[in-house]
Amino acid sequence: VPLFPRAFFWLVSLLLASLIWFISVHLSDREDARLQYGLLIFGAAVSVLLQEAFRFAYFKLLKKADEGLALISEDGRSPISLRQMAYVSGLSFGIISGVFSVINILADSIGPGVVGIHGDSPYYFITSAFLTMALVLLHTFWGVIFFDACERRRYWRLGLVVATHLLTSGLTFLNPWYEASLVPIFIITFLMGLWAFITAGGSFRNILKCLSCK
Q1: Residue 17 and residue 39 in contact, taking contact as beta carbons nearer than 8 Å
Q2: Dmax of the chain from CA atoms?
Q3: Among 40, 70, 108, 136, which lies 20 to 30 A Cα-Cα from 166?
Q4: Out of the domains of life, which is the source (predicted)?
Q5: How far apart are CA 136 and CA 97, in angstroms?
Q6: d(CA 117, CA 76)
Q7: What is the pLDDT of residues 125-175, one digit of tens each?
């Protein structure tokens, strides 16, 4: 299943969030540092909400496509399951999000100077790599949980996905205090991964079968 159409939805959400933040900055006092920092946090929150809104819109689009595929198939079933669509959708969101994060990091690595030479943390690149990895995994897990919650109409799960996404985004503002941001983010990643595994039908017995190659 191609990733690019799914990544396009994430790009559109990022574009809209960027426009909202850009307009907010230009309509405000650009000399007020505290206000600009608050607008940056506001922009990050709007970006998260738009990403989840577009994830929901994409779920609705896939449901329509799934119904159409089921109608034209010989056995009356869609050739692609909801779990497969959820996984691919979440993975595409994660990959495109990671690509944008890596681009920013590579832009900073061009120079001038050396990371940490002015007292900044020398662990900027390694922690950014771990953070990007966590975000790619989180988007994959959120996609699985989100689609299942929409299908079963369990809206409290949707709320938890949005809340953990907002929390993860907010924790990044603690950088360069990396211990306070990376540790909670990886705890969230582990918990979301466990939840997504159970949601997808995984169990301890399946793990044992996989390890024993049965």
Answers
A1: no
A2: 67
A3: 108
A4: Eukaryota
A5: 7
A6: 64
A7: 888 889 999 999 999 999 999 999 998 888 899 999 999 999 999 999 998
